[in-house]
Amino acid sequence: MKTEEQVPSRRSFHLTMIRLLGGLIGAVVAAPAAVYLLLKPKSDTGENLVEIASLSEIPAGKPQEVVYYRTRVDGWKRIREKTTAWVVKNSNEDAVAFHPACPHLGCAYHWDGEGGEGAGDAFVCPCHASSFSKDGAVLGGPAPRPLDRYVSKVEGGKLLVSSEIKKVS
Ligand code: FES
């Protein structure tokens, strides 16, 4: 025969359920927090090279704006994004890929190779009129340094570009 203390009461059943529910809610909150705190976020090391052009299709000495897609890793997110590079091919084994933002304040510059208004045969930034030669050197304007370059290499006639930027001073 069970005593009165041994018989589970409605009150003790509710207390047990409340404790279980509290533990469950704690686990639901703690698990993502633990993952966030214990797992190291990934970052884009710039080591991933993306093939952006076949050099046989780019005329030598004439800068070309190449549009391509790359995957950027930002924390726990992988973002596929469209981007561009200005490519200057010197030969089928040698080319430079310039970052498309002006080193002054980041405007998009363009190649003025038609000898029209502006510097003519130069990269020209429309924001404050900086201009750069084909090899990225500053020709005029407020730009503090030459055009930034992507880390890149040529393999089998293909130009491979990293997201890492090399600043030339
Ligand atoms: Fe290009 Fe200022 S942003 S010259």
Report on this model:
This protein has one helix and eleven strands, in the order H-E-E-E-E-E-E-E-E-E-E-E. It is of the alpha+beta class and 169 residues long. A hairpin with a 2-residue loop joins strand 10 and strand 11 (158-166). Strands 1-3-4-5 form a four-stranded antiparallel beta sheet, with no helix packed on it. A four-stranded antiparallel beta sheet has the order 6-7-8-9, with no helix packed on it. It has a three-stranded antiparallel beta sheet with strand order 2-11-10, with no helix packed on it. It binds FE2/S2 (inorganic) cluster. FE2/S2 (inorganic) cluster binds next to loops. FE2/S2 (inorganic) cluster binds at residues 102, 104-105, 107, 125, 127-128, 130, 141-143.
Short description:
By secondary structure, this protein is an alpha+beta fold. It is built from 1 helix and 11 strands, in the order αβββββββββββ.
SSE inventory with pairings:
Blueprint lengths: L9 H29 L3 E2 L6 E5 L9 E12 L1 E15 L2 E5 L11 E3 L9 E3 L6 E2 L5 E3 L8 E7 L2 E9 L3
Antiparallel strand pairs: 1-3, 2-11, 3-4, 4-5, 6-7, 7-8, 8-9, 10-11
Summary tags:
169 residues, alpha+beta, 4-stranded antiparallel β-sheet, 11 strands, elongated, binds FE2/S2 (inorganic) cluster
Report, as a whole number of angstroms, the end-to-end distance. 91 Å
The value of Rg in angstroms is 29 Å
What is the residue-averaged pLDDT? 87
Give the count of helical stretches: 1
Give the uncertain stretches in residue-range form. none
**Count of distinct strands:** 11
Sequence of secondary-structure elements? HEEEEEEEEEEE
Structural class: alpha+beta
Q: Could you estimate the helical fraction of the residues in percent? A: 10-25%
What ligands are attached or bound here? FE2/S2 (inorganic) cluster
Please state the overall shape, judged from the principal axes of the Cα atoms: elongated
Proportion of β residues?
35-45%
Largest sheet: 4 strands, antiparallel
The largest sheet has its strands arranged as: 1-3-4-5
